[in-house]
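Hello,

I think I submitted the flavin-adenine dinucleotide job twice by accident. Can you confirm which output corresponds to this input? Input:
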Amino acid sequence: MEIQENISLAPFNSFGIDVKARFYTKIHTVEELTEVCRAKKKWPLFILGGGSNMLLTKDIDAHVIHLRNKGISVVQDTDSYSIVEVAGGENWHELVLWSIENNLSGIENLALIPGSVGAAPIQNIGAYGVELKDSFVSCKVFDLSSNQEKVFSKEACEFAYRSSIFKTSAKGQYMIWSIQLKLFKPPHTLKTQYGDLSKTIEALYPNTPNFGLSELAHAVIHIRSLKLPDPKKLGNSGSFFKNPILDKKSFEAFILAWPEAPFYELGGDQYKVPAGWLIEKTGLKGRREGAVGVHSKQALVLVNYGGGSGQEVISLAKKVMDKVFKKFHITLEPEVNIIPEQQL
Ligand SMILES: Cc1cc2nc3c(=O)[nH]c(=O)nc-3n(C[C@H](O)[C@H](O)[C@H](O)COP(=O)(O)OP(=O)(O)OC[C@H]3O[C@@H](n4cnc5c(N)ncnc54)[C@H](O)[C@@H]3O)c2cc1C
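Support: Only one job matched these inputs. Its output is below.
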């Protein structure tokens, strides 16, 4: 195990922000994690996965531990489903491809979401009508202060829209070492109706009797590749803000003023409004401010054209929030983890 000092984290975060880590170590085994936890007294630990959901705003005065453990195994197999255990250091999209190759359904709509498997529960990743929680069984974690192993059931994870206990009350306390998912064998129930997915499927696969997991994932990949900038070419963290959820009273006032606004009815008198649409209406879509900007194809994504700092992104995010509030009286909340934590 090599402990490096003062290394740049630019290659390890999808925004491409160049800050330094005081210490940096790749973790492949429980023994390595134990060793790092023992040495922790001096330096706080900070967990890095794929770096695709964080905005680094200054040098990290901590020991950055980069989870790199590997392994996918079937731990229970029945006629209708398999329970699969996956190491936190695996790549999420690779896992989706593995599930399709093995004809197991449940996570195909989550294709091409960047990042690690271990980070997937943190914000209960979701896309195209599916969330991690829909197939999640449990996760094995290590308490970073005691190094004790613990298992969190689905209920204990307190999953919600882009949230879990690991992003709220237990933030930074546990390393998610592995997760278990319940994935289904054929005949599969496919979710094809969300947003522009059904239209894309119609266009890409007209009259396809054998339409299945692979085609569905391909349609998702197709839409995502058209809409979202590739972080390898243009620094970003995907959706910078959550889609605001309005109660009935606020929603009725909103839709009266903006009858053309798109929305999703969530049930329980709650309505989700696309933050991208709100931002677009403020005229900020495509706005560039120095090295950072609001993406020209998807206003929900803030981008780093190269050499931008975390603070520049913060200033732009504040401007976006301010304009949205002035126009709609709706407060946007960041989805991205701002490191170190700060209130916008
Ligand atoms: C182009 C693009 C598109 C995206 N699209 C989507 C989308 O459709 N839906 C969606 O939900 N998200 C999306 N995201 C966000 C991101 O991909 C997910 O949130 C992903 O799960 C982050 O994984 P990561 O390994 O990169 O996490 P990181 O950015 O490395 O970490 C995120 C947070 O989790 C903590 N963390 C990381 N790993 C662990 C661990 N093993 N144990 C405990 N804590 C940990 C970190 O300390 C940090 O606070 C997108 C991002 C990009 C760049």
